[in-house]
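Regression check, uridine-5'-diphosphate case 357:
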Amino acid sequence: MNDINQTDDVLVAGAGIWGCTIARRLAEAGHRVAVWEKRGAPGGNVRCETDSETGIEVHAYGSHIFHTHDREAWNFVRRFTEFNGYQHKVLARHGGKTYHLPLGLAMINKFFGVELEPGEVAAFMSDEKHSSAIFDAFFRGYTSKQWGRPPEDIDPAIIKRVPVRSNYDTNYFNDYWQGIPSDGYNALFGRLLDHPYITLETGREFSIDDIGSFPGKVYYSGPIDALFGYRFGALPWRSLRFETERLDIADFQGTSVVNYTEAEVPYTRIHEFKHYHPELKDVMARPKTIICREYPAEWKPGDEPYYPVNNRESAELLEKYREEAAKHPNLIIGGRLGQYRYYDMDQAVSAALKVEI
Ligand code: UDP
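Current build output:
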C-alpha cells in the first residue's frame, strides 16, 4: 500500500470504545497511530446524533449508559469527559401495569399485592409458585423476543445481568459509578482521539491484506469472522431494528427506558432519550420528545451485529477464527465484535487498558 503515512507505526482498525482507548494509550506511549474507521465517524455503536429541532441526544444504536465498578476504567474515561450523575432505572410493563426493575421489593410487593420486609424476600421467592410467576411475567417473553429462542436455550449468565435484590434499590446496575457524558458521547470520542500522534481516517475498512503495511502492531476491533472473509462460516449474532419518532409532547413515558416484557408486544423496549440529561432544563421543558422502539432481529451478513449468541457451536467456530488470528503475531483483536463477547462499555475500556502495548 503506498498511501500509508510512513511515519505511522501502528494501526488501530475500528474506532469504537475499545479502539479509541487503545489508540489514546498508544499515542501517549509515543507511537504514531493511524486510526481507520469504516463508518463516517468514530464511536462504534455508542455513536449519538443530537437532534437539531429538540436538542435531544439520540443514541443511534440504542441506549448506552456508562456504568462501572472498575476504578481504573472510571478514572480513564473521566480524563475525557464529565459525567452528569444520571442513575439508570428501568421500568417494565406487564399486564397493563408498570413495575420497577430489577427484581426487588418494589416489584415483588406490587406484583403480588403484598408488603414484604427485606428479611422475608428470600423465603417468599424460594416458593416455586412465586419465582415462576415473576419469571413468566418479566423474563420469559422478553428473553424469547430478545434472543429469538426460549430462555432455556440461552446462557443463564445473560439473564443474571439483571440484579436480584431484597431491598427497594431500583438502580438497574450494581455498579458504583455511572452517568452519561455531560456534553455527549460524541465529544468523548472526539477528545479520546484528539492527540497530535493520532490520525483518524473515516470510511476506511481494514483488510487482512493490509497487515504487513505497518511496522508495529495492528489493533483490530471489527468482527473476527469478517476479517477472515467468513471462511469457516458466519458467527451468529442478534441484531436490532429501531423505529425512532419525534413527538409533540414534553414527556411520553416519564423515564428513559420501559421494557415491554410480554411476548405479544413485538418490541422489547421504548427509549426516551431526553431523560438521560435531566440537567438540560431547557431541553426537558420543550414540548417535544424523541422515542425509539427497539425490535430484536436475527442477524444475517450485512446487518449490524449487536449481541453475540454464545453457545457450543459459536464457541467452536470462534476458536477456528482465533487460531487463524494467532497466525499473525502483530495482530491484536479486541472489543465486542472482535472478542465476540457481550461487553459493556466499561468492560471494553478495562480490556483495552490491560492490553500490553
Ligand atoms: N431481561 C428480561 N427482561 C427484562 C430485562 C432483561 O428477560 O425486562 C433478560 C433478557 O434475556 C436480556 C438480559 O436479561 O437479554 C440482559 O438484560 P440487559 O438489560 O442487561 O440487556 P441489554 O441492555 O444489554 O440489552
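Comparison notes: The pocket of uridine-5'-diphosphate is lined by residues 92, 101, 138-139, 142-143, 146, 158-159, 161-162, 259, 261 (CB under 6 Å). The CA atoms of residues 332 and 356 lie 10 Å apart. No diff flagged against the previous build.
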